[in-house]
Amino acid sequence: MSLVVQKFGGTSVASTKHIQKVAEKIIQARQRGQNVVAVVSAMGDNTDRLDELAKEVNFNKVGAKREIDVLLSTGEQVTIAVLSMMLMKLGCPARSFTGGQAGIFTDKSHTRSRIREIKPDRLLESLELGEVPVVAGFQGIDCHGDITTFGRGGSDTTAVALAAVLEADECQIFTDVEGVYTTDPRVVDQARLMDRVTFEEMLELASLGSKVLHARAVEFASKYQVPLRVLSTFVQGEGTLITKEDKLNMEQPIISGIAFTKDEAKLTVLGVEDVPGIAWKILGPISDANIGIDMIVQNVAADNTTDFTFTVIRDDYHEAMDLLNQVAMDIGARQVNGDDKIAKLSIVGVGMRSHAGVASKMFQVLADRSINIQMISTSEIKVSVVIAEEYIELAARALHSVFNLEEKSIKS
Amino acid sequence: MSLVVQKFGGTSVASTKHIQKVAEKIIQARQRGQNVVAVVSAMGDNTDRLDELAKEVNFNKVGAKREIDVLLSTGEQVTIAVLSMMLMKLGCPARSFTGGQAGIFTDKSHTRSRIREIKPDRLLESLELGEVPVVAGFQGIDCHGDITTFGRGGSDTTAVALAAVLEADECQIFTDVEGVYTTDPRVVDQARLMDRVTFEEMLELASLGSKVLHARAVEFASKYQVPLRVLSTFVQGEGTLITKEDKLNMEQPIISGIAFTKDEAKLTVLGVEDVPGIAWKILGPISDANIGIDMIVQNVAADNTTDFTFTVIRDDYHEAMDLLNQVAMDIGARQVNGDDKIAKLSIVGVGMRSHAGVASKMFQVLADRSINIQMISTSEIKVSVVIAEEYIELAARALHSVFNLEEKSIKS
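Structure tokens for the assembled complex are given below, as produced in the milestone run.
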């Protein structure tokens, strides 16, 4: 008998009405002959309530992180109880498990812990009894029995980890979209739902703003070779299967998807002396202020000075600019520039590996439309560019069309 | 160094503002040189929310009780996290413990479990570190690690049980009243806050409608000789100490308190044949319908028939009457009467043991005011009467005055 792990996020379990739909989904899978382990997040408004409580106390010292975990973990605990009762009410045997009860052991890093080991004895016992084990996502316990949580995207991680240890046939992530699209369908009408995408492509797409799946869960699935499927709780459909690269299928499309984000800003230090350690001098204070840095580009100029450009989350732009002005004085830079009206756009595809000229074709498309490229960054299966924000929709539509993404690819 | 267990109920932890007051109370005790273990209930509105969720699923089979416990226990878990953070914020080291983490092991009776054993190692460790252990009331775990809850008054039970096992000097129940009164101060202006009352008296008063403390917690405290104190979270004061009878103090007041309740109704079967088994025939169907029976009185009449009277909770009056009419026909009784405009009034005091004539003094006081007594029931330290509801305030005030309850007793 096959086994699937089905994960339902916050919007899928927002109310008892939603939870009834979720229970029906699970029962349908069992009627198709599949065993199901369910993993759930906190109900949407419950998370808000718990966040509000934490905010009201407004205390964030180290010791408090242990208590934040005690507080937040109640969110998923409520959902497992309600879903289990709902399943039983609909005639389907079920049993709830907190992270600890499910045997999920983590390290001691409260609010951002990592799984150390899973002892699935009780889950296996429950499956043996013909029940649906309903597991609280996002949480585990450490070696003292203290409750820990995983941070953002944590329930996806729980689902993938359980699928790996239970050797499930598939890990299904139910969400409020129908799957992974070639690009943002709100911007490009021709955006197409992908049948399949590789782990590597999904990782690039996820980290570039396709917020369907958390990168950590994809990494985990890739590492343990767990077939991952993204699909909708509310609309029937097969969704998108995320899986390892299919060696037998040589006819990869050149690119699989286009991702873009407008939530970054660009900062440039001009006329910096080009000596070892200069990158650290510039970026150190930014990192120390807990500002995340995304793209970094450094060019050598003719006069032995260099221009240094990087991007940060747009919300951190002004703080980063203040810090950078200080740094520029310290290191004797000529000038500091910034721009928070930029967008980052990336084309992603494992097909790039075997096709030369993908990047230049991208640049040509942008040039034909008079779109200036401000930064370029590449990886083995991705080309990212920074352009003015106002051109982003135009660029996405043009590239989507030129790379034929609206057509169903051969591989699927 | 002395140790106190301080328990704070739902109204005392209703909001983060309330929880700050609670934290300040705890810190004051520590400044007086006491170690504190805190036990808390769920925040008021949170309990309502969880009840609402359970109601929405509306399923109450046996298996669901396990899940009800998983659901409800999150209420206290939220409070322990918030109070621990609040204490730390105010500079007081603290650590939260769920029932299971506190080592509270119970039987497997979900929603009404009983404590089997307490392993307080982690609490002792926390005290050793100079922290305030903050324990979730109302909950424990069974031998499988499944979450169990205690039913009504459960947090009081947790507090008393921990006080017993930790050999605390006192178990303090903080609530929204200032302590235990000689009678209901809303009815009798002269009602006096008692300094002390014995366990036995408190048990009678608790079971008779003084809703300050749950009877189960008092029994527990009595059994393990834990001095129990009821006091207000919001008003400074010493409250009422509930303790074992003081053998050295012979000058007990004759009665300690007057309790009364209007939430009962009376049913009478007239002209029943007086044969063995008749009480069971009458009360069996009532019990089978899950209707609780309080007072029972049976009198023998001259013609070898008997009249049988008992009281039930007023909400169950009509259902009980329907059942009783059926029973009366089956057993050939002459008539069935009922009255739901009654009240029960009791005088309670360990002093009765050594003073004759307490009951007759009570009856005289009522007779002087032309109050007819409908039923009488007595125990070693209590006399209860049923009278017409409209006379209850008059009776309470008269008895309070005649037995000198407004005067501070000698023993305190």
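The radius of gyration of chain A is 24 Å. Chain A has eleven helices and 20 strands. Further analysis is deferred to the final report.
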